[in-house]
Amino acid sequence: MNASIIAPSAPNEPRQRRILCVDDEPNILSSLRRMFMASGHQVTTADSAAMGLEILALESFDAIICDMRMPNMDGAAFFEQVRRQWPLPVRLLLTGHADTTSAIAAINQGEIYRYITKPWVDDELIAILNSAFELLQLKQEREELLQLALQQNNELEEKVQIRTADLNQANEKLKVSYISSIKAFSNLLDLRKSNLLAHSRKVAYLSMEISKLAGFDDKRSQEVFIAGLLHDIGKIGMSDRVLSTSIAELPLSDLELYKNHPSMGASCLVSLDDMTEVSAMIRAHHERFDGKGFPDGLRGEEIPMGGRILAIVEAYEELKNADISKVHQSKEQAQKIIAGLVGKYFCPQATDLFFKALKTFSAKA
pLDDT-derived band of residue 7, with 50, 70 and 90 as boundaries? Predict the structure, then answer.
């Protein structure tokens, strides 16, 4: 048995491909060696299947060419072992015309790329090999992409796990002080501007009453109450000038600042445990049913039902307190204005529930 390696010495050539040729006939190996050397490839030869397997255990190759008929182990059996242990190299089977049927059967057994009948035409064999290398390149690129994706996924999963663990730990701490946090936020409203908390409480109680009429369960009604209580929490970052001026009298620059308070309020709460729905309602409490509200321009049923309820109650309270206009509106006048804006500013369903709630909630409305 013998093995030899021929490597072309010409510099600046395209990347050499490593080819293993396995055949028990020295003249066949010589022909293959010369041909592939002339094509700029690196060639290793083995005169038996056993020698080929020994070489594969030590070195890696891009392509393997093996004769079908060899003593002790034929090409089909050889490639079956190669497929199991070294699946990446492209496999080509050399066969005589009499062995064609066996070669075809071996293609599936060893997942052989092509079989080539002897005697071969050099140009055709080179063309087949180049085509095989193109396929190999695609496989290698796919494998590299898969490995990269796997690595990135593992890194991302690790980061997510770490972040999730951190969040779970933080949320456990927040659960302990959940009610205290709500009280603390509501107290901030009172400290920032004395009438903000009183206004928010009115919005909270009436909104919760409406949510019950809407068929909300206790948990969702409680979320509506909290959203009503904290709906103006985003205002604590506004200047005294903006807070003390009615919306109708705000200059354009201040009005743009004012329009940020729903999103700012939602941002304050969204990371807190059980506050996802609450923050969504707060963010949406200045959306309009016709899609011309802020901050997101939501339309119709895109607006959370809790947000639609808050929008009506907020407007009702602001009309009575002259926050929207310069003039204080009576309850009756405020209700009339709201009725005239149904379908434009306010959800028809939520507005109907609002008027029903007022009948049983007049003392607090």
Answer: very low
